[in-house]
Specification:
three-stranded antiparallel β-sheet; single chain; 3 strands; FtsW/RodA/SpoVE family cell cycle protein; transmembrane; 17 helices
Amino acid sequence: MINLIVEISKYVMIFLMILYAYLNFRFFGVKDEEKQNRICVEQNFLMFVIHFLAYLTLYLKLEDGQILMFYWIQVFFFLAYLILSRVFYRNISRLLLNNMCMLLCVGFVMLTRLDPDRAFRQFAIVFVSALVTWIIPFIIDRTWQLARIPWVYGGIGLLLLLIVYVRGITSYGAQLSISIGGIGFQPSEFVKISFVFFIATMFYHSVEFKTVAVTTAIAAVHVLILVASKDLGSALIFFITYVFMLFIATSNCFYLASGLAGGSIAAFLAYKLFPHVQVRVSAWLDPWSDVENKGYQIAQSLFAIGTGGWFGLGLCQGIPNKIPVVEKDFIFAAISEEMGGIFAICVVFICLGCFLQFMMVAVRMQAVFYKLIAAGLGCVYIVQVLLTVGGVVKFIPLTGVTLPLVSYGGSSVMSTFIIFQVIQGLYVLKKNEEEEE
């Protein structure tokens, strides 16, 4: 009987996830605000049903009473977060809020299945992040002075990256994190945000060649320190974000072409200089040649995705723990194996929906400073998503970055909360301006 319930729940969750992803894009085609709100309410209903079915499955398979308690704690948190967000910020983007909660739901479900202890820790981090970042939309809506301190953003970012380079903890061949009071965090996750603010403030004041040259030099220092720390995934995110923001600010195709050419040369040099990059490229090109060593991780990922097929094996029916670091870099493979390829694709569509909302905010903003912030943070977010998914499915070499809001990782969760709340602040700002007009 339990197996029948689990099997039926699997197909119901896939169907509901398809509906959620459809509404995610249907929202953009509806202009009437009342209809948009109705779509958001329907999304909330679908999210809570998917969440319930997933934890019902986990409880039936694992028979652990703590899972039920953890489920109800999450339900209370999501209800409170959704309601209070609407109460305190009347003009908040409900679509972005829903998608954020949906991605968190998927992350909690998979982490509970993979490692309940880490799921509990992830929830604590999410709760703290939600509280700490709550005030950000209020600040964005009222503080123009954010555009006046470019060198504060640049200086803080460079200082944090230098500390990691000098005193950072090495993990998987790269210096990624530092430890303060026994608590480790990854500064590059937060420097991504200060980096975007630095570029936005510089180009807000001027896009003359001198300013472009100075900004490019500082951006290059950010990237070079990351390269020296062997954090090439973050370096790639920084580089692409800078080129994207430079093109938006100047509309100069020469800058875009030069950036792409320089990036290609830098990628080639990184391959020649760093042995662990050569290992990752070799594993990407032919993981089967050394499947027991350097190709093991990507091979297990591909096995998991292939085994899951379109509809998945069902929660607790696969063996995703055979993939090294599955709860971080490879959580998309675990989703594909147990929830199915269709469910995993819908997760990507939800991420794309978030990116579209970011870009729509950027397009609607009249102030160049705010426009560049929205576009830059949107680029940071979607590039990280694409690098993670692309590495898992062997479309590109592994870069060691996480899937925002879904993968395990405190620094990633906190920085993503900040990114989403900054965008919410810009959205609220624009909606308030439109109402005043």
